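Let us begin with a simple case.
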Amino acid sequence: MIRLLRMMTEQDNQEFALELARLQQEHRDLDAAIEALQHSPAPDQLRLQRLKKRKLQLRDRISFIEDQITPDIIA
């Protein structure tokens, strides 16, 4: 039973790590897209706002996953 639980935890952590890497890459890509759009001659403000909103959503999900991966430490 404990072995099965440990295997599930390891598998969960691996899945979280893969999702985390994907989300971090998307976050970096959005950062670059936002930067490029801001420096364009006539930036599309609506598109810029949507990209920033998506970036914030990613940041929230990244923080959640990092919390799941990092074990709670009771001081």
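The second case is a distinct protein. As before, the sequence precedes its structure tokens.
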Amino acid sequence: MKAQEFDEKFEAGEDLTNDLDFSRARRVNQESRRVNIDFPAWVVEGLDKQAKRLGITRQALVKVWIAEKLKDAA
């Protein structure tokens, strides 16, 4: 498909999912890198309590809190 045809479909609000190849798609700045952090038991217990209250995993809570702090610091 030519770019002009793609643009016309997009502008018309047509569904383009069948015209795209998602096999090589990636999200910019979203590649994961593993980090290991040791916390005292009381910190882990507090994280678990907050995560349970919010209905999310401990890992998700830590990711959100760190991302928020970095955003605020920028």
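The first helix runs from residue 3 to 11. DSSP finds three helices and no strands in the chain.
Keep these points in mind for the review questions at the end of the chapter.
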